[in-house]
Structure formats: structure tokens, C-alpha cells
Amino acid sequence: MRCIECGDELLAERAGLGYQYCTKKQCQAKHHKGLTITAIGLNKSADTFIVGDQDEIRRRAEAGEFAKKDSGLGINYRTPGPAAPTKRPQPGAAADLSLSARRPWTGEQEKVVRLYHAMGLSPRQIVERAQVNTPRLGITESLATKIICSLPTK
Ligand SMILES: [Zn+2]
Known about the structure:
There is one protein chain. By secondary structure, the chain is mainly alpha-helical. The chain is built from seven helices and two strands; from the N terminus they run H-H-E-E-H-H-H-H-H. A hairpin with a 5-residue loop joins strand 1 (37-41) and strand 2. Helix 5 crosses helix 6 (123-133) and helix 6 crosses helix 7. The site of zinc ion (ZN) has 8 residues, from loops. Zinc ion (ZN) binds at residues 3, 5-6, 8, 21-22, 24, 27.
């Protein structure tokens, strides 16, 4: 199999693809038909081809048609890259943390302190009453003070 233009021997794989001409610039210029290639300079270093027939352009590229150094052209297949893994925030985690930091006592402790506070007892009196009536809650004076401070003022 020889080039119909210059008579040089064709590469077997190129002949197998049905080409009757070689990859020389002058041979391609005469026989390269029916394919429109638009090179768009996306940046200074790489060109992207927009082609009508992806299969054909790939076959031609594989046959060396676009690999000539004198053309200065390369082929650039654009494939979608893998999606970046998205970091899932954990909703509620931060809120729960701040809540427990702000209110380091149980609802039961707060209920008792609220009750005694509503009765007009001081934190010390509240602790004395709580130690008698609800010792398992472990209410201390500083805890009672904190709870009272957290209560909405009237
Ligand atoms: Zn030729």
C-alpha cells in the first residue's frame, strides 16, 4: 500500500483505516477533505478542537495525522473529571455542643431550681431544700446560681 500522492509506503495501520495517502503535509493538504476542524485557543498553551465527527477525528489522530511536529497542533479530548467529593456538614452537632456548654445541667435540675427560685429562695436555700428533697439531682450552689442566671428575667 502506497500513498496515492507521493508514492511513499503507507503505515499498515493507516492503510487498514482506509487511507490512501500518507501523513505528509503536502499529501494531506490535497486529500484531506470533508472534515472541518476549528481550533479555539482556550489559552496560550493548548488548543481544543471542535469537530463534527468525534470518531473520525480520533481515528485520524491515532493514525498520526495530527501528531506532526511541524503543525504545532495537538488534540485535546475533554473528558469530565471526577466530581470533587463534597464534605457533608453535620447539622446539629455544633448546635448541640454549644447548647450543652451553655446549659450543663439537666431539665430536672432546672425544674427544681426554678420552683424554689419562684418561691423566693436564695441559691443557698435552694441547695439546702434540694439536698433534702431531691438529693439524687446533686444540685450545688454554683449550679443553682447558674440556672437562676439563665432564667429569663421578668
Ligand atoms: Zn504521501
